[in-house]
From TrEMBL:
UniProt xrefs under Pfam families: FAD_binding_4, MurB_C
Example GO molecular function: UDP-N-acetylmuramate dehydrogenase activity
Cofactor: FAD
Transmembrane regions listed in the UniProt entry: none
Species this chain originates from: Bombilactobacillus thymidiniphilus
Family per record: Belongs to the MurB family.
Matches recorded under SUPFAM superfamilies: FAD-binding/transporter-associated domain-like, Uridine diphospho-N-Acetylenolpyruvylglucosamine reductase, MurB, C-terminal domain
Name this protein carries in UniProt: UDP-N-acetylenolpyruvoylglucosamine reductase
Role according to the record: Cell wall formation.
Catalytic activity: UDP-N-acetyl-alpha-D-muramate + NADP(+) = UDP-N-acetyl-3-O-(1-carboxyvinyl)-alpha-D-glucosamine + NADPH + H(+)
Amino acid sequence: MTTEILKLPVEIKVNEPLSKYTFTKTGGPADFLAFPKNDAELKLLINYALDKMPITTLGNSSNLIIKDGGIRGLVIMLTKFMVIKVQNNQIIAQAGASLIDVTKAASKAQLTGLEFAAGIPGSVGGAAFMNAGAYGGEVAEVITAITEILPDGREVTLRGSDLHFAYRHSVVQENQGIVTAVTFTLQPGKQPDIQNKMDELNALRASKQPLEYPSCGSVFKRPAGYFTGPLIIKAGLQGKIIGGAQVSMKHAGFIINLGTATATDYLTLIQLIQKTVQQKFNVKLETEVRIIGEDRSK
């Protein structure tokens, strides 16, 4: 493990526990954890690490489980890429900006189309990566361009059909690029109507989701013809606890950290849910949450 990277003019932490940054409050250490503030610092990191160590990019780590062994090589967190600009009916946001902040900017600018995302806690880059959605909407409906840095270091801007959006999927998962900016194209609207819709959806979210506990959000994709929560309830697993992780009593599609959970607890509980639902209902539950990193060595 080279320490030459520490000579770069970028904020870098060594052997940093990623549990400090994930929404589940779990996850092992990163060999190197970097916080670039701009494109120049990001490119500097990528150019340095390309042939020397693996690179993993994170947004605000909301719909994510990092295994207890952590991540080898360089982890880049884009949480300092936060600039949001409004240009006519478009919002151009850096990848680390909060999607919630983008919806607030849209409301202030009297632009409609993003209300469904008012409570989604992910970053803009993460939302583009997984085509985030809620309450009948998906960011695929409003994202018209992304700028990313490809694994070979080239910067490209992709538009339209090149984005390959599908359910919880985008081109970024295919080309393994690093999203640096996203363009949302919205429509003019009335600010009170926009804000009222956002408030309504946020109240609905608070009433139905266990926001008072650490969690990774919705754990599973919705299987065709079913709703995940009711399947888990019918399987008798609502409230099930493994270690410090529990299937939420408020929403069975969520797994919460009661305070002492490890990533292994999460993964063991996920596997139990998948196995039980498959056996009882012959339905395969696929994870929506992104799972990365290494198991803890024994």
